[in-house]
Amino acid sequence: MKKLQAVTNEIADFYPKLQERKKMDTLYKEVLEEKFRETNEKKIVHQGYILQKKSRTKWTWKEDVFTFLKEKGVLHAAISFKKEATERYVLDSFQYSPEHYVRISPKRQTASEKKVEKEEREKRKKELHTKTMEEVINLLKSNRIFIKTFEQRYDKRKKEVLSLMQEHNVQKFMCASGNNYSVLTKKAEYDMDTLSANPVLKRFNFSYKQLDSNGTVSCIDHFTNEKFTFQNETLHNGQQLSIERGRLCINGKKLRVDIRSIFEGGYYPATGTILVDNEDLFLRSSISSTKIEELLDEGVFTSNEIEAFRYRQSTSDTTEFFEAISETSDEERKKMFQERMEKRRTRQQELKIIQQIEDIDHNDDDLFALEEIV
């Protein structure tokens, strides 16, 4: 534990400086944006830095994208589970070993400290506005060098803290300076290939009570917050609900009823699981734009094909933002994008040739077609 205390004390020494520098980066960008706006220019290149306005769009996926991806055989590889999906379906057996990380929670500022910080920020902002754009850019550049150096040091020390906390089986730890450290679990990742080849267990959580001797039942679905009434049996969200000898059943399977726990109004809780097709889960998930990009990289479909399934709901879905980036970083970003597009084109050509060869293999009459392709 002494080593853990020593490492966290080291972090406590430079972490406030790192946070202060990050706040200054935000302030420099804010001042530069205001100065940039005054020029009425769309883009300025100054002192090796690019100042410009850019836009980003929030796209909405059409419902028929699910059918398109299913036909391509990649629906499972294009989705991201919503929180309610991981609660509704039993997915533990498909989950990869969880990854952990450390989160630091600095000692909270008092109200008076926050007030002083706000006043100091406004004072600094006024001072920065008296400087030229060139001077502010120079301050931004040197500040980002500091941030990069200390973030590398910080990431290294956080890994040490995680290792030490796991070694001592500690989930939470407070260092001498008052900073709290917690071991948290990253968002679960799943073996989607295995999941796509197997049915899944779906959880159900109802409350119900019989209203009369004719089989009339009042029911509440706690997953969807729906309250409904049916007689003897009904179709609810694709599943057959029925009453057999006073027990609520789903697709003929009796749910567990705890007769000792009667809810307000005389409702009995009924819970259980049934095996359902994995598509039931997939169609209740979100399309992941990141995973769509990965499938584009693999050549599963083209940009033109997938673009037909997304749209912008309103003009407010496109927002502008200010960017201050070094020319070097901008060039690296462009190069990475060009390389990615070139790889996609190459992959599409490879798949096209493979398809042509497969077509020829199924057509023994055309013996010379392969030579023409090659």
In short, what is this structure?
This protein has 374 residues and is an alpha+beta fold.
- C-alpha termini separation: 67 Å
Coarse structural class: alpha+beta
What percentage of residues falls in helices of 4 or more residues? 40-55%
Percentage beta strand: 25-35%
Task: Please tally the helical runs, counting DSSP H or I stretches of 4 or more residues.
Answer: 11
Backbone shape: extended
Sheet with most strands: 6 strands, antiparallel
**Poorly predicted runs of 5 or more residues:** none
Number of strands: 20
Rg from C-alpha positions? 29 Å
- Mean of the pLDDT scores? 90
Would you give an account of this structure?
By secondary structure, the protein is of the alpha+beta class. The chain has a domain at 200-276. The chain has helices at residues 2-39, 65-72, 83-88, 111-129, 133-167, 192-196, 278-282, 289-297, 303-307, 327-361, 369-373; strands at 43-46, 49-57, 60-61, 79-80, 89-90, 100-105, 172-174, 180-185, 200-210, 216-221, 226-231, 233-236, 239-244, 247-250, 253-254, 256-257, 268-276, 286-287, 310-311, 318-326. Strands 5, 9, 10, 11, 16 and 17 form a 6-stranded antiparallel beta sheet that branches. Strands 12-13-14-15 form a 4-stranded antiparallel beta sheet, with no helix packed on it. A 3-stranded antiparallel beta sheet has the order 1-2-20. A hairpin with a 5-residue loop joins strand 9 and strand 10. The longest helix is centred in the first third of the chain and has 38 residues, at 2-39. The radius of gyration is 29 Å and the shape is extended. The relative contact order is 0.16. The model has no long low-confidence stretch (mean pLDDT 90).
